Amino acid sequence: MNEWVEMWNEGIEKEGVTARIVKKTPGILCPCYNESTGYGNPLWHVDNPSEPDCDDECYLSSTEIVTDIKCFMIPKDSLKADNVDQIILDLIGKIEKYDYVYYGPNTYNIKELGEDDYIEYTNMKFRIKNVQRYDIREEPLAYIAVLELIQNV
Question: Is the pTM of this model over 0.85?
């Protein structure tokens, strides 16, 4: 690990905020699911009351893996030319009014998260978009992404 990566990771640990990454893992598809419609049939559960209920996406026993992570979370309103490199903005693309920019360590690859996974931070829930790995001297330094506000928790 080069000195830049070490300094970055130490800076995140010292100055970063704690955000919660929630990774959803679907369980087994419920028998109520109808492939032709793409939806669950609620009458199946009425006819089979002893069977377990499924979630909104017709899965049984889905779970969430929760990981707290130190990172930098910057709201769009706080982005200024003097504190955000234009190269970074070019990497992640357009940022909308209520979006945040995520700067995280290279030790947690948020690129591997799915479309149902999200980040929680200060009572807000964000969809993860446009994830990019930022390298320095051909070594991974950070993961950077746009976070789209989807809900105040």
Answer: no
